[in-house]
Specification:
Order of helices and strands: EHEHEHEHEEHEHEHH
Mean pLDDT: 95
Largest sheet: 8 strands, parallel
Structural class: alpha/beta
Number of domains: 1
Radius of gyration: 16 Å
Oligomer: single chain
CATH superfamily: Aldolase class I
Low-confidence stretches: none
Strand order of the largest sheet: 1-8-7-6-5-4-3-2
Strand content: 15-25%
Number of helices: 8
Length: 216
């Protein structure tokens, strides 16, 4: 399998919301590749984070791609509100929507389409949608809250996703989200991931640039 460039996506869920613009600028200057935005509705997961206006505000402080992760019940209804300023939008296979139709609509809106799955969900759930998405987002913690411990058993999903990508001649990113630090980024990379969503590990680091370089 050819080597793929490692991308680091700082997650603003771990930022100081009162200094959103400065935090996004800090991660941009520190060498982040994408800015990751975890949108939660209080229904699909037991937490509420922020909505389109907040993400749009963040986008005004960086030229980096905005990577939106919709942890919401009806992503098909809400993704268009993010499409104007997002580069990629990921939706969950477990959510209440026509997955294939939503992925096609995200692509038609000019964004990369991502398909996410939570730790309890079998990787077989996404196999019918191979070729319809640009990002496979493997949650490495149970979605809803930042700061959780990495679940090593999720690496089997990353390995399977990487195997499908190679065997079927597909070209999609494999993104991991949850508990990512230098140790778990290495584990994820060895399994086949190429996009590392990092929250607490970069936002709380004494030197964000050094942490991002270490993750990469």
């Amino acid at each position: 399998m050819p080597s793929r460039k490692i991308l680091i996506a700082p997650s603003i869920l771990a930022s100081d919301f009162s200094r959103l613009g400065a935090e996004v600028e800090r991660m941009t200057a520190a060498g982040g590749d994408w800015i990751h935005c975890d949108v939660m509705d209080g229904h699909f997961v037991d937490n509420i984070s922020f909505g389109p206006a907040f993400v749009e505000a963040a986008s005004r402080h960086t030229a980096l791609p905005i990577d939106v992760h919709l942890m919401i019940t009806r992503p098909d209804r809400f993704f268009p509100r993010f499409a104007k300023f997002a580069r990629s939008i990921s939706v969950h296979v477990e959510a209440d929507h026509d997955v294939a139709r939503t992925l096609a609509a995200i692509r038609a809106a000019g964004c990369l389409a991502g398909l996410a799955l939570s730790p309890p969900t079998a990787i077989a759930r996404i196999e019918p949608f191979l070729g319809l998405f640009d990002i496979l987002l493997v949650m490495t913690v149970n979605p809803g809250f930042g700061g959780q411990a990495f679940l090593p058993e999720t690496m089997e999903k990353v390995r399977r996703g990487a195997k499908w990508r190679e065997e079927r001649g597909l070209d999609y990113h494999i993104e991991v989200d949850g508990g990512i630090d230098t140790a778990t980024a290495r584990i994820s990379r060895e399994a086949g991931a190429d996009v590392m969503v990092a929250g607490t590990s970069v936002f709380k680091a004494p030197d964000a640039a050094a942490e991002i370089a270490s993750l990469r």
